[in-house]
Automatic annotation (TrEMBL):
<feature type="domain" description="Aldehyde dehydrogenase">
    <location>
        <begin position="32"/>
        <end position="493"/>
    </location>
</feature>
<dbReference type="InterPro" id="IPR015590">
    <property type="entry name" value="Aldehyde_DH_dom"/>
</dbReference>
<dbReference type="InterPro" id="IPR016161">
    <property type="entry name" value="Ald_DH/histidinol_DH"/>
</dbReference>
<dbReference type="GO" id="GO:0016620">
    <property type="term" value="F:oxidoreductase activity, acting on the aldehyde or oxo group of donors, NAD or NADP as acceptor"/>
</dbReference>
<dbReference type="Pfam" id="PF00171">
    <property type="entry name" value="Aldedh"/>
</dbReference>
<comment type="similarity">
    <text>Belongs to the aldehyde dehydrogenase family.</text>
</comment>
<dbReference type="InterPro" id="IPR016160">
    <property type="entry name" value="Ald_DH_CS_CYS"/>
</dbReference>
<dbReference type="InterPro" id="IPR016163">
    <property type="entry name" value="Ald_DH_C"/>
</dbReference>
<protein>
    <submittedName>
        <fullName>Aldehyde dehydrogenase</fullName>
        <ecNumber>1.2.1.-</ecNumber>
    </submittedName>
</protein>
<dbReference type="InterPro" id="IPR016162">
    <property type="entry name" value="Ald_DH_N"/>
</dbReference>
<dbReference type="InterPro" id="IPR029510">
    <property type="entry name" value="Ald_DH_CS_GLU"/>
</dbReference>
<keyword id="KW-0560">Oxidoreductase</keyword>
<feature type="active site">
    <location>
        <position position="263"/>
    </location>
</feature>
């Protein structure tokens, strides 16, 4: 089938053009079974496209093509591979507006505050990793004067990448760009809620890359994800998603003894000290909680510990700022806050809001305002919430909600708040806000998280090593380290010169 690679700014038209298709072995294909499932616009509940219901037969075709393409790709000089991956980034940068609009349509993320930005970072990630190709270096080892001893880095082979729906472009790029530069082929299993934009990205990249090297399949975990992980020719799995599914992936990969990278959940703490710059802390909390993304982020600062002396002022100022945000049509430039992704996630978030209301001592603060446009009546819109008066032991403060529900907890003793921040199964991200350098450095040493920031709350960026500890996952992404350690293996070579 032929779908033009010309820039298409009408996301509804583009969604229909991509409907029912995977991109495998350099071309569009429907699922082998012909089965499809609906892709809906979360702002209206309306179906905008179909996606192929991929199964083991589709996985087999994609992996076979990837295995064949990878052998030739690995023979290319590393810098040549890097140039092609960087060229993918350059070409994708021409499609930022198109991709931003399409991702807003299928995920409900606001175009101006979320989706357009994600499309930009996507392109940057490929350019960044393309420039790291020359770093695929080995070492010489002083083992014996009569023996030339060295190490070289070699690709692992075919990589299976499973991505979620909340930031699918960014997370696909972090996995695919690193794997490709290192000399691997990649087969992606997209999230069933958001298969369209990553499909379009794959099509665009295949105008640059060799056929079969980079493929994508839409489908569900049991029917598509599991066969991908279990396939004997998949030599590495990289997964982002829930802890529960991550454990399933880990067990399946362990049966084959292949390496796995897991980026899982989070319940990230933010500590605001009495001396913090209030303006910066308020802005950082709003950004960190990802209110514009409806809180659908594993790094969301959903536990905010505020010193008791500034607690009330902080809450009041956050409320004022978020109340001023506009919730509405994700494709409208005036919109700050979009929607929840799906009806299932919508119900989950509402259940946690109900739980918060039932929590002893809790006070619910409702923020912003629901859209008034009648065409959005069936959309998955949820007003952000702050719950105060709770403890770190309450369920809404311990379980990942993945929605716009924030717990604000008072503290007075620094050692106790560090202990509370660490009292979690998760360890993905953490932030502290203070003008006291000694206190800041002390916190960065003691906080049990893989991504710690002081007086800022940046999202993941190229060249910032990203990944969690504890139940938040295994391994790092978005850095030179991730490319070398997770997508190559080291071979030792000894040449006896006697």
């Amino acid at each position: 089938m032929s779908v033009s690679t010309s820039i298409e700014l009408d996301p509804f038209k583009l969604a229909q053009a991509l409907s029912g298709l995977n991109f495998v072995a350099g071309a569009f294909h429907p699922a082998a079974s012909g089965k499809t499932f609906a892709v809906n616009n979360p702002a209206t509940g309306q179906e905008v496209a179909r996606a192929p219901f991929s199964e083991k037969a589709d996985v087999d075709v994609a992996v076979a093509a990837a295995k064949k393409a990878q052998k030739e790709w690995a023979k290319l000089p590393a810098r040549n591979r890097g140039k092609l991956v960087a060229e993918c980034g350059r070409v994708l940068s021409e499609h930022v507006e198109e991709l931003g609009r399409l991702i807003a349509l299928e995920t409900g993320k606001a175009l101006r505050t979320e989706s357009r930005i994600e499309a930009s970072v996507l392109a940057d990630m490929f350019v960044f990793f393309g420039g790291l190709a020359s770093e695929l270096k080995g070492e010489t080892v002083p083992f014996h004067p009569d023996m030339m001893t060295m190490t070289v880095r070699e690709p692992v082979g075919v990589v299976g990448a499973i991505i979620p729906w909340n930031v699918p472009l960014l997370l696909m790029a972090m996995k695919a760009a690193a794997a490709l530069v290192a000399g691997n082929a990649v087969v992606v299993k997209s999230a069933e809620e958001a298969p369209l934009t990553v499909l379009r990205v794959t099509q665009i990249m295949n105008t640059v890359l060799p056929s079969g090297l980079f493929s994508i399949l839409a489908g569900f975990g049991p029917e598509c994800g599991a066969p991908l992980v279990e396939h004997p020719d998949v030599k590495k799995v990289t997964f982002t998603g829930s802890v529960e599914t991550g454990k399933i992936v880990y067990k399946a990969a362990a049966e084959k003894l292949i390496p796995v990278t897991l980026e899982l959940g989070g319940k990230s703490p933010m500590i605001i000290c009495a001396d913090a710059d209030m303006d910066k802390a308020v802005a950082g909390a709003i950004a960190g909680m990802r209110f514009t993304r409806q809180g659908q982020s594993c790094t969301a600062s959903s536990r905010i510990f505020v010193h008791e002396s500034i607690h009330d002022e902080f809450v009041a100022r956050v409320r004022e700022k978020v109340d001023a945000m506009v919730m509405g049509d994700p494709l409208d430039e005036k919109t700050d806050i979009g929607t929840i992704i799906s009806d299932g996630q919508f119900d989950r978030v509402k259940s946690y809001i109900a739980l918060g209301r039932e929590t002893k001592g809790a006070t619910e603060i409702v923020l912003s305002a629901m859209p008034t446009d009648a065409k959005l009546d069936k959309g998955f819109f949820v007003q952000p919430r702050i719950f105060t008066g709770i403890t770190n032991n309450d369920r809404i403060a311990r379980e990942e909600i993945f929605g716009p529900v924030c717990c604000v907890i008072k503290w007075s003793d620094f050692d106790e708040v560090i202990a509370a921040a660490n009292d979690s199964d998760y360890g993905l991200a953490a932030t502290i806000w203070t003008t006291n350098l000694k206190m800041a450095m002390d916190a960065t040493r003691r906080l049990e998280a893989g991504f710690v920031q002081v007086n800022q709350n940046l999202v993941v960026q190229p060249n910032l090593s990203y990944g969690g500890v504890k139940a938040s996952g295994l391994g790092k992404e978005a850095s030179l380290e991730s490319m070398l350690e997770h997508f190559t293996h080291k071979k030792t070579i000894i040449i006896n010169m006697q």
